[in-house]
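Journal club side-thread
Mid-discussion, someone asked how the predicted structure for our own chain would compare to the paper's figures. Pasting it here so we can look after the session.
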Amino acid sequence: LQGFVDSGNKLITISGASITAHNMSTPYDITTVTSTTTGSTSHHYGTGLELAKFNSDGTKMYVRWGHHSYYGSFRNEIQEYNLSTPFDPASLTSVIKIGTYHQSIYTYIDDFAFSYDSTKMYIMYDTNIIYEYVMIVPGSLDSIYWTGVTFNVGAIDSAVTRMNISNDGTKMRI
């Protein structure tokens, strides 16, 4: 289970390398699922997904890979997909990939979030530190750079693995 998107009209789940959007007739009511669409991604080592997130208008989807039993962890990679139909993972068209070696940070990604306008990206690493990035082209991983701003989540709780940013950007939930 990844969560609700599109004002609660879709529930996103992942299994292996597939992302499924469950469409609902009543927002946030999983008993009203009317249809599903599934998109498949691929990783060159066949590892499964652990996170799938969308930008606010649903035209981009971002995934973080998991652990492969033979090749090890790919939790240091995020991929960006363009979606031709908003919030529909079956409509993914292209991919851009970054790794944590981007901007000289060498550790695994626990979670990530975006500002509502996709001009900022926040990446929480397994060190319990959140890094703030600016996206010169809104939503594009190709254009991110680290602002120099960090937040040490470990000062609050040492076992945090998930985060999100409120739509108005005033709250960070960890």
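Post-session note: The CA atoms of residues 3 and 12 lie 5 Å apart.
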